[in-house]
Amino acid sequence: MNNFGAREVDVVVIGAGQAGLSAAYHLRRAGYQPGQGFVVLDHAPRPGGAWQFRWPSLTYGKVHGMHALPGMELTGADPSRPSSEVIGEYFAAYERAFDLRVRRSVDVAEVREGEGGRLLVRTSDGDWSTRAVINATGTWDRPFWPRYPGQETFRGRQLHTANYPGPEEFAGQRVLVVGGGTSGTQHLMEIAEVAASTTWVTRRPPVFREGPFDERAGRAAVALVEERVRQGLPPRSVVSVTGLPLTDAVRRARESGVLDRLPMFDRVTPTGVAWDGGARGEAPRAVDVDVIVWATGFRPVIDHLAPLRLRESGGGIRVEGTRAVRDARVHLVGYGPSASTIGANRAGRMAVRDIRALLAREPVVAAV
Question: CA 140 to CA 292: how far, in whole Å?
Answer without folding.
Answer: 20
